[in-house]
Amino acid sequence: MPEDTSIRIPSGLLPSDGRFGCGPTRVRQSTLDHLAESGSSYMGTSHRRPTVRRMVGRVRSGLTELFGLPDGYEVVLGNGGASAFWDAAAFGLIERASQHLRFGAFSSKFVGVVSGAPHLEAPDVIESPLGTHPMPSPSDRIDLYALTHNETSTGVTMPLRRVEADGLTVVDATSAAGAIAVDPMQFDVYFFSPQKAFGADGGLYVALCSPRALERIDRIAASGRWIPPFLSLSSAVAQSVKDQTYNTPALATLFMLADTVEWMNGQGGLAWSSGRCAANAAMLYGWAEQHPMAQPFVPDPSMRSPIGATIDFRQPLTWAGLAGTLRANGIVDTEPYHKDGNHLRIGLWPSIPHSDMEAFIACLDYVIEAILS
Fold it and tell me: How many structural domains is the chain composed of?
């Protein structure tokens, strides 16, 4: 069923902002206004001078506060996003062999990076069906356990607990960071990009690193292993503690990240932002459980993402018809990641007020009724 552009949702039902994607996510208008107000005093200036270095410092101090990082942890910034961090970790964090939990598209990508690295042993890979998550299995052979806090492609969240083993616990938190509560004592590295919960833009990675991780980075860097300079975690750490990045960062991304982190801290920190997401999730999943034409894609409520909900629909409804009709009415980016199901993927981010989630559900009801009538 293609989209029906003749269905016009009444303006009184529409949310204040129609962006409900799972990444990049909506950027708050106040953040864009603050960036515009900075004028020529920030954009277009040197990243080695105090103006930009102060922005990096705002990011680092803001994230330290948001996550309640203990003494000895460092906020490390580097260019290239989480995809670049997978490559950097293959060079600078894994000594011999890693173990990966694979339960969707993004948790699979780190596996692909490591599997092709000639200086590493073949990784352990533990898989589970889509809509579920596996659990790690400690092994004497493994020195790094790669977890994914939230699998963006399927809408599955797993509890984050340190693996009880000698290896590092390294967590891909790209869609979880800033939206799910986390205990820093449960990870050695928690890395993410700022275009999800933080409503910024891509091209930057952030890695929250424990003292154990920092020691590993230093040890590998001193071992003589060849590491491409752009992917050197040792260089990233050395630059970050000076409130710099290895090379020129995207200045707008830094500004938007700093602005959003400070907004979150001002609202009540991680407890507030994760609470807003959980409330949005409860509304949407509750609706799907009650609607005769819908159901959550993830069957186990404890595994359902509080930040990116995947909702299945029954025929004759189709994801293409629903998403296309919503898009024609200005509600965008609800298309699924995998096209082999019949579901929508809906962002539940801290930037989405409850009133907009209520409006989204009302619009979905309107479109479904119009299609079925």
Answer: 2
In the chain, alpha helices (H) = 29-38, 50-67, 81-92, 105-115, 211-221, 233-240, 251-267, 269-290, 319-328, 354-372
- Count the Cβ atoms, other than its own, within 10 Å of residue 369: 11
CB contact at 8 A, 283 and 358: yes
Per-residue pLDDT tens digits for 325-349: 999 999 999 999 877 689 999 999 9
CB 66 within 8 A of CB 261: yes
Question: Of 266, 293, 324, which residue is a domain's last?
Answer: 266
Q: Can you tell me the distance from the alpha carbon of 339 to that of 331, in angstroms, rounded to the nearest whole number?
A: 19
Helix (H) or strand (E) holding 70: none
The length of the chain, given as a count of residues: 373
Q: Which two tokens stand for residue 59?
A: 């990011």
Tens of pLDDT, residues 64-99: 999 999 999 999 999 999 999 999 999 999 999 999
The token duo for 25 is 């996510």
Cβ-in-10-Å burial (0-12, 13-18, 19+) of 152 comes to buried
Residue 163 counted as domain residue: yes
Helix, coil or strand: residue 291: coil
